[in-house]
Every structure is written in structure tokens, then in C-alpha cells.
Amino acid sequence: MSLKFLSRYAPYALSLLRVVAALIFMAHGTQKILGFPASDMNPGVMSLPWIAGVMELVGGPLLILGLFTRPVAFLLSGQMAFAYWMVHAPRSPFPVLNDGDASILYCFVFLYLFFAGPGPVSLDARAGRA
């Protein structure tokens, strides 16, 4: 049985990937900046964790909407690469041990969005920028 019929849904799956990844990613920003969900994290204003939280809090909704997807995805991909090498890699060379697997995954999902664009269900597509 051929599964070629699935390829017509690939652009919509791209939009779904963008929205789901951004929703989960945004929760890191709400935790750092807004204290929700509650945690013991309280980064000082203008510290690296605070800047990361602002990027997550602003970039997440932009990606959910599919607005300025490519530049936002590029910046967030870089943020996640930076986070991996600055925070996680020094703990261990193994991502499963240094808790960096999510950073790596976000880095490459966002890098893919930079190249692939937002998909058809996005404000960028509606404005003809996809």
C-alpha cells in the first residue's frame, strides 16, 4: 500500500509542528518571567536566563501565530544552541545525562522552520511571506 497520499498533508503537519513546538517552548518563558508554572527559578533582570525567558515569552507566541517565522526561528535556534553549549554540555558529553536533549531538539526544529517556513496555516502565509 502506497502512503504517497500523506504528502498532501505535509504542509499542514509543518504548521502543526510549529504550533506545538512553540506552545511547549513558550512555557519555559512563562516559567522564567511570569513564574507560571511555579518554580524556584527567579532570574535577575538582564541576566542570561532572563534574556532567554524573554526570547521564549516573545518568540513562542510569534511562532504559534506563524508571524515572522523565519527570523524568529533562526534566533531561537541560535538561543538553543547557545543554551546547550553554555549550560548543558559542560555537565556531561551525553545529552541524556546533561539534560540537554530538549535544547538540541528545539535547536533543530527551529532551524528546520527557518528553512521550511511556517506552513500554510500561519499569518506569514496569509500575508504572502511564507
In short:
Helix content is about 65%, strand content about 0%. It is an all-alpha fold and about 130 residues long. The protein is globular.
Describe the 3D structure.
It is globular, with a radius of gyration of 16 Å. Helix content is 67%, strand content 0%. The protein has one domain (12-123). The protein is mainly α and 130 residues long.
How many domains, as an integer? 1
Number of helical segments?
6
What is the beta-strand fraction?
A: under 5%
Order of helices and strands: HHHHHH
Radius of gyration: 16 Å
Low-confidence stretches at least 5 residues in length (pLDDT < 50)? Answer: none
* General shape: globular
**What's the count of strands?**
0
What is the helical fraction, as a range of percent? 55-70%
User: Can you summarize the main beta sheet?
Assistant: none
Mean pLDDT: 96
- Tell me the span between the first and last alpha carbons: 33 Å
**Helix/sheet category:** mainly alpha
Which characteristics define this entry?
130 residues; mainly alpha; 6 helices; 67% helix; globular
